[in-house]
Amino acid sequence: MNKFGIYMRVGIVGGGISGLLSALALEKEGYEVVLFEKDKIGGLCRSEKIDGYQVDIGVHAITMLNNGPLIRLLKKYSNYLPNFRSYGDYYIRLNNGLHKIPVSLQEWLTTPIVPHKDKIIITTKTIDLMSMGFEKDTSVYCAVKGLGLSEISLKFFDTISYFLSGEDMRNTPLWRLFTGAGYIPEDDILPFIYEDSKINPMKSILIKKINPERVRNILSKGFLKTIKDGSKSYISKFISGERYSTQGYPLGGIQSITNCILNSLKNTRIKYEEVISIEKDEKENSYIIGTNEDSYNVDIVVFSAPSRILPDIAKNIDEIKKLENYLKNIKYTTSLTVWFGIDEDKNPLKYKGSEIWIDPPAWAKCITNYDKSLAPEGKALIGVSFVNKTEKEAYEAIEKYLNIDVEKTDFLHVQRAIPEQASCCIGQFFVYPKVSDTFYIVGTDADPRSMGITRAAYSVDVMLSEILNKKSL
Ligand SMILES: Cc1cc2nc3c(=O)[nH]c(=O)nc-3n(C[C@H](O)[C@H](O)[C@H](O)COP(=O)(O)OP(=O)(O)OC[C@H]3O[C@@H](n4cnc5c(N)ncnc54)[C@H](O)[C@@H]3O)c2cc1C
Question: Which mutation among 44, 249, 416, 463 tests ligand 1's pocket best, with the greatest number of atoms within 8 A of CB?
Answer without folding.
Answer: 44
